[in-house]
Amino acid sequence: MAEPDSLSRQSGALIRDRLIEAAVHEFGEQGYDRARVQDIARRAGLSTGAIYGNFRNKADLLAEAVDRGLAAAARKLVEALDRGAASTDLLKMVATDLSDPRRRTWAPLVSEALAAARRDDEVARRVHAALRRAEAKLTELVELAQQDGSLAPEVDSAACARLVLCVSLGVDVLTALDFEGPDRKAWTALVHRLFAGLASAAVRTATAARRSAGGRSGRSSG
């Protein structure tokens, strides 16, 4: 049987989760400035007191929602690595993941957080910290790709991570604006081509050899 303190912690975590989930939708639909604390609480099926019992203010709730979302994305990458996914494939996934239905929910929140960060110092501090952590995780992926020979060692890992982060955030902002995107296959092909240009000499040589072999096979079968 669980101890009372343990149950209380579990209950508190569930309440925070419900509030954050409600805030993500409310901020996305109403915008940060128009979203009201009482509406977030109502959406979560809780009282306004539940919000102030868990968060200092609306800015804290917004920052926590962004922080939670980026942390979840980072965990997704780590879990994929643990399953044996190649680090370069994960970097490409971050840049090409346009079809994830969760992006429609997440993108407006990111857009609102970036705008609010320009007006609210607390939001700015928390958003900056969350983005730094996300960029650090991307930098680790770049360095892993360099260690296994997928990416060229002369590629600056921090600069490459920033490029991937900028592309991902840019996609979020445009998605929040319902800005119609390019053909998904064309976009994915372009990103893969960009990463091919960053590949190590060994990978480029192996890729060229495979293409050459494929070309010869095609000609002989014809």
TrEMBL record:
GO molecular function: DNA binding
Residues in the DNA-binding region annotation: 36-55
Keywords for this protein: DNA-binding, Transcription, Transcription regulation
Domain HTH tetR-type: 13-73
Top-level taxon: Bacteria
PROSITE patterns: HTH_TETR_2
Protein name (record): TetR/AcrR family transcriptional regulator
Source species of the chain: Streptomyces cupreus
Classification of source organism: Bacteria, Bacillati, Actinomycetota, Actinomycetes, Kitasatosporales
